[in-house]
Design brief:
Layout: H1 3-11, H2 16-55, H3 70-96, H4 100-103, H5 121-124, H6 129-140, H7 142-180, E1 185-189, H8 195-207, E2 211-226, E3 229-238, E4 250-251, E5 258-259, E6 268-271, H9 272-278, E7 285-290, E8 293-304, E9 311-313, H10 316-323, E10 331-336, H11 343-351, E11 356-361, H12 362-374, H13 377-405, H14 407-415, H15 420-457, H16 470-496, H17 500-504
Helix pairs in contact: 2-3, 6-15, 7-12, 7-13, 7-15, 7-16, 13-16, 15-16
């Protein structure tokens, strides 16, 4: 916009440093002001939001402190200043290398060239005149093409991360307590009671009207060690491995392949996140330790899908081989038709028995996890808002520059008889095509960024889902396209204001 002013100043004897200093001062003022606001939001507001979201997962957090980390704030501000100053100086000096006479003339339009699509005759011949003009204009203004694709790609990526996080978090309870653990209730046996009293609980469960299936197992916390790393996990040992298909689904998360419960000769299966945190792979062996019990070594045969807590699955025969004794069963899994049984009555009857110490219903567990994870929605909304803001700013700025640089071209179209709507369509087609290219780039970037963010925000006891639903892809794409349409609507009034005679005037 200031090209002609720069030419006049240069003709009057001002040096390049003095002329560019004006734009540098503007750049510094905007960057430092925005940077300080960003430090306040990034150091005070966002950490508070995230800690409040995660606070529900932890206890003993009566106060939340968000002090400003001045070293990080200065580093972030310095990075912002350096990048904008560099862009400003490059832009200014790329103009100032020209002589004053050249600068005082309008910037000549980019020359048109044959594009690759023209070499494909069968396609090129079928394009209309306006479509051919659109393709050529995209090739002429490559800088705008790259900037728009990068900006819109960033917006699409952030939207995908936001909606993808929502998918990943919401799927935890469903995947864990419907697809993987298929029981309806878990009854804890009182290990301080005698064997007869615990048998009485098992008998009461089996005889209770409405109960379809039940299974007894041992679930106890142990320390798993591998390569110097230690992770606390539940050792899962069923009384009868063949019964477990009705209660637990052991499968590979990526391939979906279902595994039968491991036999003694198969070694053990371990949950996916546990294996990742220990750094163990299939075929390697780890140690199982617990105070008061001997340390044993077991080979990991399979790594299985799991989202909540850490598990290692052993058969009762392997447990006997490792420890030389029968496992002491402390849990009963129960499966029943939810419509044919009263959970309150069922729980009350079992808790009245000496051999039981508690009962957990999966419905309540699933509900609690959902409520706990919904708090993270605040973080997701911030991501979605940031993505929308990015898209609007990028599109608005690039479109403004595009129109200013092409005023004479657009005015020529008006002189040739193009109506306002036709002129707008001429520009809009390019914008929408660039938006589509940006969406495509954003899908690729968003998938990678989503995986990185999900692995970063996970807490130790949970593994979030890794898939983004098709609905999220569609919503993100439509939202990005919607931002583009809004900006195009705003730009219409700018296009309409272009004066044919004033824009076609020559400096001479």
């Amino acid at each position: 916009e200031s090209r002609m002013n720069m030419g006049i100043l240069k003709a009057l004897g001002f040096g390049g440093a003095a002329i560019s200093g004006k734009y540098l001062a503007y750049c510094l003022l905007a960057t430092v002001t925005g940077g300080i606001a960003g430090v306040v939001i990034g150091e005070r507001f966002l950490p508070l939001l995230i800690m409040k979201s995660y606070g529900i997962l932890f206890t003993a957090m009566p106060y939340i402190f968000t002090p400003v980390n001045y070293s990080q704030a200065v580093l972030a501000l310095l990075a912002a200043v350096l990048s904008t100053v560099a862009a400003t100086l490059i832009s200014a000096f790329s103009q100032l290398i020209e002589n004053p006479a050249s600068l005082m003339r309008p910037l000549p339009p980019s020359s048109g060239r044959r594009v690759l699509l023209e070499r494909i005759g069968t396609v090129w011949k079928r394009l209309s005149f306006t479509s051919k003009a659109t393709v050529r204009n995209l090739a002429r203004y490559k800088k705008r093409l790259y900037m728009t694709v990068i900006g819109i790609g960033g917006c699409m990526s952030l939207l995908l991360v936001g909606f993808g996080m929502r998918d990943s978090i919401q799927e935890v309870a469903k995947n864990q307590y419907i697809n993987i653990f298929k029981y309806n209730a878990s009854v804890s046996l009182n290990t301080k009671s005698d064997a007869a009293e615990r048998e009485e609980v098992l008998k009461a469960v089996k005889e209770y009207e409405g109960v379809d299936k039940s299974a007894r197992l041992r679930i106890s916390a142990y320390d798993l060690t591998f390569g110097g790393k230690v992770r606390n996990a539940y050792v899962f040992v069923p009384e009868h491995a063949e019964e477990m298909a009705d209660f637990v689904s052991l499968r590979n998360r990526i391939s979906g392949e279902e595994y039968s419960f491991p036999k003694a000769e198969d070694g053990a299966y371990i949950s996916e996140k546990t294996a990742k945190m220990l750094g163990i792979k299939e075929g390697e062996s780890l140690e199982i330790m617990k105070d008061g019990e001997k340390t044993v070594k077991v080979r990991i045969e399979k790594i299985v899908e799991n989202y909540v807590f850490h598990y290692i699955f052993l058969s009762s025969e392997l447990y006997k081989t490792l420890y030389g004794a029968e496992p002491e069963y402390n849990t009963v899994y129960v499966k029943y038709d939810k419509t044919g049984i009263s959970q309150d009555d069922f729980g009350e009857e079992l808790l009245s028995l000496t051999g039981s110490s508690g009962i957990v219903f999966v419905d309540e567990l699933e509900k609690n996890i959902d409520e706990m994870l919904q708090v993270l929605d605040l973080v997701i909304y911030v991501l979605i808002f940031s993505a929308g803001l990015l898209a609007f700013i990028v599109l608005y700025n690039l479109n403004s520059i595009n129109i200013l640089e092409r005023k004479r071209e657009i005015a020529t179209l008006k002189v040739l008889g193009f109506y306002d709507g036709e002129v707008a369509g001429y520009v809009y087609r390019e914008n929408m095509l660039l938006t589509l290219f940006g969406i495509a780039a954003g899908i690729a970037g968003g998938i990678i960024l989503h995986l990185f963010v999900i692995e970063t925000v996970e807490v130790d006891l949970m593994m979030f889902g890794r898939k983004i639903s098709m609905f999220s892809f569609a919503v993100s794409a439509f939202a990005t396209m919607g931002f583009s349409v809004i900006v195009n609507g705003v730009m219409y009034f700018m296009l309409k204001k272009i004066d044919m005679t004033a824009s076609l005037k020559s400096v001479e």
